[in-house]
Amino acid sequence: MSKIPAELRYTAEHEWVRIEGQTAVVGITEHAQAELGDIVFVELPAVGVKVAQNGDFGVVESVKTVSNLYSPLSGTVSAINPQLAEHADLVNKDPYGEGWLIKLKDFAEAELSVLLDAAQYREKIGE
Amino acid sequence: MERLIFEYSRAGRRAHTLPDAPSVDFGWPERQALRLPEVSEIDVVRHYTRLSRQNYGVDNGFYPLGSCTMKYNPKVNEKFAEKFAGRNPQEADSANQDLLSKLYATERMLCQVFGYARFTLQPAAGAHGEFTGLLIIRAYHRDRGDARRTKILVPDAAHGTNPASCTLAGFQQVSIKSLQGGVDIADLKKHLDDTVAGLMLTNPNTLGLFEKNILQIADLVHTAGGLLYYDGANANATMGIAKPAAMGFDVCHINLHKTFSTPHGGGGPGAGPVGVSAALVPYLPCPVLDFAPEDGGHYYFNYALPKSIGQVHSFYGNVGVLLKAYAYLRIQGSAGLKKASALAVLNANYLKARLQKVYDIPYPRYCQHEFVISVQNFKKQYGVTAADIAKRLMDYGYHPPTVYFPLIVPECLMLEPTETEAKEELDAFCDALLQIAEEVRTNPALVKSAPHSTIIGRPDEVRAVKEPDLNYFNSLGVFSAYTR
Fold first, then answer.
1. What is the pTM of this model?
2. Could you give the angle at the alpha carbon of B183 between the alpha carbons of B181 and B186, nearest 5°?
3. Is A123 within 8 Å of chain B by CB?
4. B75-330 architecture in CATH?
5. What is the pLDDT of residue B78?
6. What CATH superfamily classification does B334-459 receive?
7. Which of B462, B463, B465, B467 to mutate to test the interface with A (most CBs of A within 10 A)?
8. pLDDT tens string B322-359
């Protein structure tokens, strides 16, 4: 059973979002990183870019495959994880912590209601 | 592990002895000596012989790499192509009429097999063919004054090159969902509008299944004003049995290095000819190879194509590859091609029938030339992955099949035996896979730590991608192994 923190919200495409005051932190789930395998490269948007809910905001590349990243919420990118350029493997090692991908400001809080909670996401991945 | 040839170098050692000859010396400063390895002839021979023995190719054994059609490459193809090895493309067309006649005949035969008006033989590989075909689609829409069509629909089971080619050709790629091993028609309909330039499809698809709704799909796309592109990577199942043109595909590429038995892989040249229906002929890359019947007839390169997308390869493509495919086509004939496809399908179904007693086949209906197995159950129960099974197969002396493709099947292996394997070979391979399944149950650690017999086992793939060490010498001009 993979780790699925109860306080986060999830997309069906395996991203998570955590609300920290005025900021929404986005990453991919532990299940997603395990399925992808060793991650080699993460392509992220520039700070200031506007993203839409379910819109793609980047690409994650592993030794097995390349996948798009989809934003759980609409908002404006306020930060990208600076460590990932050199250490993409942080996404494998600590997907809910040091392996976060982007932070959003001015995000649409109402959109949280259409995301999956931990139990729904666990059901989605068949665990 | 074999060392680099530079590591065998010893100052003054030579592979040749030349007689004294008068020297020409004006006393000018010498150029800096080249940093070539100094080795004897037998050092060279042994080094490369050792390397060749560590290699694995279709001449060594079974090579069931799905979606790659690793069929045997008959040596007579090479003999035939060698006859033209000394030709120079800068020579006048009149000096190469015999060679051009073979290329022209190759195009005509491909038109017969696949049902198209014309083929360009220029593209050098499958993805190059995709790119060329998409540029033709773009030129067609623009020529009609329809610049809104900026999207190409690609099923989520497609070869990875399809979305890449779309992007490179300036299109936006839109992914279409799969349903029960085929295109999800409802999802397709949802995306069809007047911004769609076309749909790229492989048939049989990457699950090895024939897309039974192809006529309906073609009708839907055509009605919406789009064109259909056929990714011919899986054409080995359909030669002489089903023509992509008759399925409604307007443009197609095929891989001569898969379907038509020219060598494949190892970085060597390929060829990805592109066929088009009559309406798209004006946009073909220039030149096209034409025949003028006057004065006894002659072949010539025709550059007078004002609507052409332009040249996509120097001269006329990888001519050596084209000649080998010509030899294969002429030796097989229409009956031989049809039989090759029939045997490829039979071999795949034989493998599938033996393996499905033990392995999970997510789409169990009759397959075409290849099929996909999933070891998701092994992963859940024993922690053994598709990669582990592939690695273990190497201990049994086989090249592993394709793994983790198509993306829509978890922990999958894709097997394509091709028509050139005998029943004994297929049986031995099945025995190995069945034995491995037994090992997964009784000794999963053995499988998870495989391979145990190869020179390289499990390379650090992340480091290989991020820190490739491809130079003999570092920036100081010192062989890098000495500085580590």
1. 0.88
2. 125
3. no
4. 3-Layer(aba) Sandwich (3.40)
5. 95
6. Aspartate Aminotransferase, domain 1 (3.90.1150.10)
7. B462
8. 999 999 999 999 999 999 999 999 999 999 999 999 99
